Amino acid sequence: MKIGLFDSGIGGTTILAAIKKVLPNEEYKYIADSKNCPYGEKTDEELKEIVTTNVEELKAWGAEIIVIACNTATTRCISYLREKYPELKFVGTEPAIKLAADTNAKNILVMATPGTIESERTKSLLSENQKPGQNIELLACPGLADTIEANYESNNFEPINDYLKNLFSSVTFAPDIIVLGCTHYSLIKNQIQPFYENAALIDGNDGVARQVKELVQGKSYKKILLLGYGKEGKSAENYFKSHFNCEIDILENFTREEIENKDFSSYDLILRSPSVPPLHLSNESSLTRYFFDKCPCPIIGVTATKGKGTTCSFTKSILDSLGKDAYLVGNIGTPSIEVLDELRPTSVVVYEMSSFQLWDLEKSPHIAVVGTIEPDHLNVHDGFEDYINAKANICRHQTPDDFCIYYKNNPDSIRIAENGNGKKLAYPLEIPAEILDSVVLPGAHNKDNAIAAISAVSCYMNLSVNDFCVEYSEKIKQGLANFHGLPHRLEYVRTINNTSYYDDNFSTNPSSTRVAVNSFPDSDIAIIIGGRDKTKNEDLAEIYEILKTPNIVKIILMGESGHEIYNRFEDPRFVLVESLEEAVTKATESVAESGRKSVVLMSPSAASFDMFENVYDRGSRYQSIVKGLQ
């Protein structure tokens, strides 16, 4: 595709470089309109005539997308150009005020030409995005673009430095962020930075590049097939319909054999939902891969057999307490594609990643967290090694600039961490007790989850764990204390007399049930267990070993695996039931007789699909029954 750009001189070359970085194979034509520099000193009519001349030249060359690589020309002329040339796609640039304000920085300095400073668009950006207590000052820089134009290419920086010294003498505060509101200014970052060594310098170049990439790819996507139509599939349909003028077909409830016998050659893109394994079709990708390709900011990816949702939530809560623009997505409930348009380079994504989302990932997150790994989803994966191989993609493609945090007490976590070239950090490690005491969730495993989260955020902050805990102790404690647990993950429901009821319906394998049981060493436990086993009943012996825990006084068995356990093993504590209502009743009766401190724990160690719609349905029905007890 042919992409044209113009600016009043060399400033727009910074945007050209950003676009070429993400679209290296397109054709480009750049007009350096130096004779009309700076655009900010032209009248509206003069500027319209100038930009029209440039657009006509690019149109004659065959440009399909035209980038106005100038803030002033964008704010004053982009609407005019879109109306005059409806057959062309225009992308403009504007001061990155929203990007800066979203970081919650206290002091922000916006450098721009007088024309940009005085524009209505800049005033709107300021009024729409400035946060309470945030100081954003606009600094007009008359003649700076001219000075850069005249001296930059000859490496004569003395006039530029003299200009900046005089300019910044009028600034009465130390900015946390400096917004470079003219493309010329991006050329002299190295000259600006020494005046404010601790300030972050940002421009809108990467945002423009993303917009152009979306237009190019939208042009290519005429027909898309979505394989799977669950929550992520529905979100993907909404996203692609709103972004691309393309036809979308949906295929669900299919077998692999049916897929292999179909002709999909008419589709430009085939996107799998997480539950659909790689099919190795032409133009096949996944929603996770699509997100990783488009995400403009660092990703903290977390995987484990169990505990990844809690670790992600601790991580997000700590980031929130630090004032970061953090997003929690993935297996935890929010499809990543739903937040893609909201992300900025200063954002950070916390991504809960199951083996399904990692299956054929070709990029790894900047920070990977690998918790306890045990056999799971073996009814879908081709054995445990296939499951491990999928999980390993979380760090397999890391570079030495990335980080891999792994659970040192689990051999398969260690094995996964050996993939890739990221810096390795083992946990659990020493964290001050006063910090970990802020964790309100029961169980030693949740302390480990908190340590993993602290480690991940310390890497994001480019600090050692020790320095992070010293410098940000109160913020970490606040983040840990603010998280009270996820639905159906060892969730407290209520207490009646001496009996407390807990909902651990997200337990779909033995490892999570073991953790749940070990969380209540001082209480009598009546456990409700059973459902659809995910290992073809290969883990039933392991489950029964867990059920031998001395303080489990009654075992209520239900569902397919509950019946199988009842038939395979003999135990006087067994009670076989046919409904959840009966299970809660029998469990309550069994512990009420003793009068001691007790727990009724529903931790099925199996999937829910034999009797319920999903784990949320199973957990919600359990809680409804418990809350109705008299």
Verbal overview:
With 630 residues, the protein is of the alpha/beta class. It folds into four domains: 2-91, Rossmann fold; 221-287, no CATH class; 295-481, UDP-N-acetylmuramoyl-L-alanine:D-glutamate ligase; 491-627, Mur ligase, C-terminal domain (Protein-Tyrosine Phosphatase, Chain A), CATH 3.90.190. It has 27 helices and 24 strands. Strands 14-15-13-16-17-18 form a six-stranded parallel beta sheet, sandwiched between helices. A six-stranded mixed beta sheet has the order 19-20-24-21-22-23. A four-stranded parallel beta sheet has the order 2-1-3-4, sandwiched between helices. Helix 3 links the parallel strand 3 and strand 4 (89-91). Helix 14 crosses helix 22. The chain is elongated, with a radius of gyration of 29 Å. The model has no long low-confidence stretch (mean pLDDT 91).
Task: List descriptors.
630 residues, six-stranded parallel beta sheet, alpha/beta, Rossmann fold
Strand content: 15-25%
CATH topology of the largest domain: UDP-N-acetylmuramoyl-L-alanine:D-glutamate ligase
Strands side by side in the biggest sheet: 14-15-13-16-17-18
Kindly state the number of beta strands: 24
CATH superfamily of the largest domain: Mur-like, catalytic domain
- By secondary-structure content and strand pairing, the structural class works out as alpha/beta
Mean pLDDT: 91
Largest sheet: 6 strands, parallel
